[in-house]
Design brief:
By secondary structure, the protein is of the alpha+beta class. The chain has a single domain, classed as Glutaredoxin (3-Layer(aba) Sandwich), CATH 3.40.30. 25% of the residues lie in helices and 25% in strands. It has six helices and 13 strands. The strands form three sheets. Strands 4-13-12-7-8-9-5-6 form an eight-stranded mixed beta sheet, sandwiched between helices. Strand 8, helix 4 and strand 9 form a beta-alpha-beta unit. The longest helix is centred in the middle third of the chain and has 14 residues. It is globular and about 50 Å long.
């Protein structure tokens, strides 16, 4: 089965709930089935975005980056506009598509803003996503992106702090691997290092390109 990805967002008339949301499973072996539907709030937010009533703190996460170096997420991204995504390199569709869209959008920024931006990809399949694998995969998308891998429990805890559900990869008898993970991109402001919004699965490159100049300056779109 291939049902990928997404966070299902429960919407009330005036409230967006960001906890207890469903998982989506991505199976390496097949891409025959349609993606799970994404439900977004009916509000003034731009298509593909969900504004958080209470901003989320950046997860306290210490992992290994694609160069084999220790990486403290909070410390290394402090004061920088930061986009955070949980996924895995063997994902057949949504992960590479999302990262490619972010890369295209980031390239449209002025040089100084692009240098200031941090895009962090945290692996939900850390056993297979070694630093070498991350470096190769991200290098083909955007070498300036940071890839992180390490202890799965720590990664799962960090994702949970943002309301993102992930579960341990499951290897099947036929050799395929199912990795269940949310597919949100969280945008952290450089002003307070908190996420004031996230982007749902399927957000277009055009939307990211429109919003990034605002996010870099600490103005949530």
């Amino acid at each position: 089965m291939h049902v990928c990805p997404a966070r299902r967002v429960a919407v009330a008339a005036t409230l967006v709930t960001t906890a207890g949301l469903g998982l989506a499973a991505c199976d390496d072996a097949s891409a025959d089935q349609p993606a799970a539907a994404v439900v977004t709030p009916s509000s003034s937010a731009a298509p593909g975005t969900v504004t958080l009533d209470t901003p989320d703190a950046k997860p306290d996460l210490r992992l290994t980056d694609q160069n084999g170096h220790s990486y403290d997420l909070v410390e290394r991204t402090a004061g920088h506009p930061t986009l955070l995504y949980f996924g895995y390199t063997h994902c057949p569709d949504v992960c590479p598509t999302t990262m490619a869209d972010l890369a295209l959008a980031a390239r449209g920024l002025p040089t100084a803003d692009r240098r200031d931006l941090r895009v962090v990809f945290v692996s939900t399949d850390p056993t297979r996503d070694t630093p070498r694998r991350l470096k190769q995969w991200l290098g083909a998308i955007d070498p300036q992106f940071t890839g992180l891998t390490g202890d799965f429990t720590s990664i799962q805890r960090a994702a949970k702090s943002l309301g993102v559900g992930i579960s341990a990869p499951v290897k099947h008898q036929d050799g395929s691997v199912t990795v269940s993970h949310g597919a949100e991109v969280f945008a952290f402001s450089p002003k307070d290092d908190k996420a004031h919004l996230f982007y749902t699965s399927g957000t277009s490159e055009q939307r990211y390109a429109t919003d990034l100049p605002e996010i870099v300056k600490g103005r949530m779109p």
